[in-house]
Amino acid sequence: MSEENKEKPHLLTVNNLTVEYWARRGKIRAVENASFTLHKGETLGVVGESGSGKSTLGMSLIRLVPYPGRIVKGNIILEEKNILKLKNEQVRDIRGRRISYIFQDPMTSLNPVEKIKDHFIELIQTHEPKVTKAAALRRANQLFKDVGIQPERINDYPHQLSGGMRQRVMIALALALNPSVVIADEPTTALDVVVQAKILDLLGALKERYGMALILITHDLSIVLERSNEIIVMYAGRIVEQSPSTDLYSSTQHPYSQGLLKSIPNIELADQKLEAIEGSPPDLLHPPSGCRFWPRCSYVMPECRAEEPPLFQTGKNHLVRCYLYTEQSK
Amino acid sequence: MTKPTTKKSVLSSILPGLNSLAKRGLAGWLIIVGAIFVAAIVVMTAISPWIVPYNPVEIPSSPKILAPPSMQHFFGTNDLGQDVFSRVLSGGGVMLQVSILSVIVCLAIGVPLGLFASYAGGAVDRVVGLLMDSIYAFPGLVLAIAIAAMLGRGVVNMALSIAVVYIPSYFRVIRSQVLSIKEMSYIEAANAVGAKNRTILTRYILPNIVPSIVVVATVNFADAILTAAGLTFIGLGVPVTIPDWGWDLTNGRRLLTSGAWWVITFPGIMIILLALGFTLMGDGLSELFNPRLEQ
Amino acid sequence: MILILLTMVFLLIRVLPGDPVLLHFEKNASPAAVEQMRHQLGLDKPLWAQYFDYLFGLFRGDLGKSMQDYSSVGQNIFSAFPATLELAIFSMVIAAALGIILGVQASKAYNKPEDHIIRIFGIVTYAIPVFFLGMIFQLTLGLGLHWFPVGQRFNPTIQIPQGLNIGSIHFSTGLYTIDSLLEGNMFKFTESLRYLFLPSLTLGLVLSGVFIRLTRSNMFETLRLDFVTAARARGLTENKVTYSYALRNAFLPVLTMLGLQFATLLGGAILTETTFSWPGLGRYIVDRINFRDYTAIQGAVVVFGIFVSMVSLVVDLLYAYLDPRIRL
Asked: What Å distances lie between residue B213 and A149, B216, B219, C127, CA to CA?
């Protein structure tokens, strides 16, 4: 896509990924033709509202799209291998080891009848059968130090830990096998504000220390503006804007992204009026014709209703799916 | 709605009903298949006096004892020379009577009991509830056998013993439903307007609990049939002069060693079909009323 | 609540129409004989006196005397009980094992043919009268193929398992399987299993339907919970996810059901024991019914009731122990 990125090694490349859900009432395209590249050591932010397809996108990277969803098109290439073409056993091996996933709700993501230490022992011994229980526990101890939990808590059951602690456990589990990619799906949504910042800082620090790439999925644009290198904005299953975060802030191009930006409260602006985006996300069973966003767009033009705009390149690494930029891209 | 009087109008009112059931997916189909089983057996038993090739209870003067199935005797004969096929056609009567009677008794006693006790609340509810729980906790068949042993043989006694064992089930279901409905605001509103308790019960609560009662009743039917068969097996059934599948099974037990498998197999299958019919209906109905939230 | 149960059974044979003693003799006995029996069994005392006798008797383990020969009902029941216990245990094991295995399979193959077959199997087994199934097995596996015996509890040509016999220590459980192992006699062990097989298979099959259904629906829901998906996302094997994560969490309601089904088990045991001439409590009751031995019937029914209550209690305790959320 661009020259600058050719220097950084490609870690994960996604091409034309399309995911559909087959419900009794009809077919829903949760993700359509998504393409992007993740580089080593980079943080990629994926922003969108609920229903935008961002979680589905994340889940498809480890081939865990829940029934009745299925990946119908595209490829996901991790270190030369196309994940979508691998056998089940090979994918299982990748999960947790090469790519880790941190789920949104820490309260329900751990096995209620197992102690924390067993979660770690299972994980490590499944992927590295030769490791002894004692060695696995040592590793878990080290991880606990890294994420900031007292080591004795490892003997507890999940329900004995607070939400913030459980999220740290999830992070520790995600890092246990030194993956190249960590996907964090709304890592802070279920937590209170104070803990949110701590967890995000923690993720950032660990990312540096372990040298992994991070995909941060969230609905909160402010988080990714601060903490990611590149941002993908999703709407109704489509990538509508893609750019380095600094560029996105200074030159927000897609009307939807502009709306998102305007709705972030800024503590320094005393009289700021919070502007919400008018309307609501479309029903994916019966999406609007043409551009998915046109019913809510203040810049809507005739061609928007007719046919969906392609991604136009407006800058070195900046892509927008909007007819407003037809000229600029040429 | 005018009452359908001719055969044609009965069918024409059933068919749209069937159609809408079929549209409801698996649940609808279960109900239809189950109902077909049951209806077929009911009809068969009802018209059996006219279609039996032989008299099911008469002992022929020159009996062909334990004859295997043949063209003359489709299902063979038993040790008294009676034609098994004829007995199969007419043997469902006892089971049907027992189950219908037990359901009627349960409805007559269990429904009002459940309604009043749970609506009244307080001490009444607790006492009755305790009694019901005790009966419910007891091994059902054991209790039925004990009661039937005390009462003696016969259709009515069998029905009564089954009814006693089953009433707590009705009570429980009704009670949980009534308790949740009771808290709803429209009951409060009705009270505020001065509606009599009796009116509230019959006009507001009763119609809402009918679906669950129906479900319990179908399970009741199925259980009653199996229990009646069990009671007969132990010797607490009906006298020999009435054709009964349960009796055939009991009698056939002695004949196993002679290899006369036909005496028990065909009546047994009929019992299974009848119980299965009701069970399918019950499953379908409960699926219909409380669809499982799947995806 | 046990008190209510006991009272119910007490009232059962006294409140119902007909005097138990008269019914016993079936109207062809001299008034003197009737009076004698009444007196011997304490049935001529006023109702409340009888009630107290009954309760206190139960405390002491005295279940009254049989109408047939004035023998101790308690003794008779005590000797018949182990047979039923053994049958109950093996049947429950078969029912639970079948139910859980098939239920798990069905929940994983949601809406596929395997799922439908298993569900139909569960429904049909429930609709089969247990004695009919027993007789079919007797016909086919017993008389037809000669693989298993069709009646009785043990080979009549050899001595029944004796249990532990070392010097002056005599210990036997009454369960032939365990006793033969204690005795160290493998032939007796296999024989006891051979006789146990058909009756427990019959009872177990009929009971399994409920377990299949419950396991299937619980597993179905549990498999969709977050922590299961999270476990898959960590690359844990399907086996581990299914059993350590999903089943262990879905299992507790199944355990409770095990306890509840015990009541049904005892009822079914009566019919099964009759079919297979199994000398347990169930057959005892049926015999006593045929003899119109009402005091014995009362005693046996009481034992059944108490047994079920005890099992429910144990299951409740077990449940609390197994769920770490309750325990801690």
From this structure: 54, 5, 10, 21
List b or e across A239-271, with b for residues whose CB sees 16 or more CB atoms inside 10 angstroms.
bbbbbbbebbeeebbbbbbbbbebeeeeeeeee
DSSP at A95? B
The reply to whether residue B134 touches residue C132, judged by beta carbons under 8 angstroms, is no
Query: Which chain C residue lies closest to B129 (C-alpha atoms)?
Result: C1
From chain A, the residues in CB contact with B295 under 8 A are: 23, 67-68
- Structural domain boundaries, residue A66: 10-98+207-325
Look at residue A125 and tell me if it is in a domain: no
C328 vs C326: CA distance, rounded Å: 6
Please report whether residue A212 resides in a domain: yes
Measured in angstroms, the CA of C227 and the nearest CA of chain A are apart by: 4
Distance from CA of B271 to the nearest CA of C (A): 8
Residues of B in contact with A68 (CB under 8 A): 295
**What is the domain count for chain A?**
1
Give the span between the Cα atoms of B112 and A142, in whole angstroms.
66
pLDDT tens, residue order, chain A (330 aa): 444 444 556 788 899 999 998 877 788 888 988 999 998 888 999 998 888 888 899 999 999 988 888 899 899 988 888 888 888 899 999 998 899 999 988 888 999 889 999 999 999 999 988 989 999 999 999 989 888 888 889 999 998 998 888 988 999 999 899 899 999 998 877 777 788 888 888 888 888 888 889 999 998 888 888 889 999 999 988 899 999 988 888 888 888 888 888 877 776 666 666 777 777 888 888 888 888 888 888 888 888 888 888 888 888 888 898 888 887 766
Contact list in C for residue A92 (CB cut-off 8 A) is: 235, 237-238
CA of A288 vs chain C CAs: smallest distance (Å):
32
Contact of A126 with C236, CB cutoff 8 Å: yes
Say if C325 is an interface residue toward chain A (CB within 8 Å): yes
pLDDT in tens, C121-180: 988 888 899 999 998 888 888 877 888 888 888 888 887 787 777 777 777 788 888 888
Domain ranges of chain B: 69-288
Å from C179 to nearest chain B CA?
29
Contact C324 A113 (CB under 8 A): yes
Taking an 8 Å cut-off on Cβ atoms, the answer to whether C267 and B272 are in contact is no
Pick the more confident residue, C292 or B210: B210
Q: Are A239 and A37 in contact (CB under 8 A)?
A: no
A70 interfaces chain B, CB cutoff of 8 Å: no
CA-based nearest residue to C304, from C77, C1, C54, C72: C77
Tens of pLDDT, residues B41-80: 888 888 888 887 777 777 777 777 777 877 777 788 777 7
pLDDT tens column, B222-263: 989 999 998 888 888 787 778 888 888 888 888 877 777 888
Work out the number of other CB atoms within 10 angstroms of the CB of residue A322. 24
* B23: chain A residues, CB-CB within 8 Å: none
For residue A140, is it within any domain?
no
Chain B: list its partners (3+ Cβ pairs within 8 Å): A, C
Question: What is the CATH architecture assignment of B69-288?
Answer: Orthogonal Bundle (1.10)
Q: Does residue A317 lie in a domain region?
A: yes
In this complex, the residue of C128, C266, C309 whose CB is nearest that of residue B142 is C266
**Are the C-beta atoms of residues B105 and B283 closer than 8 Å to each other?**
no
Contact A113 C249 (CB under 8 A): yes
Listed in sequence order, the residues at least 6 apart from C137 whose beta carbon sits closer than 8 Å to its beta carbon are: C148, C198, C201, C202
CATH of the domain at A215: 3.40.50.300
Question: Is the confidence at residue B1, as pLDDT, over 90?
Answer: no
Q: Is the ipTM of this complex over 0.95?
A: no
| CB-nearest partner of A95 from C110, C225, C235 | C235
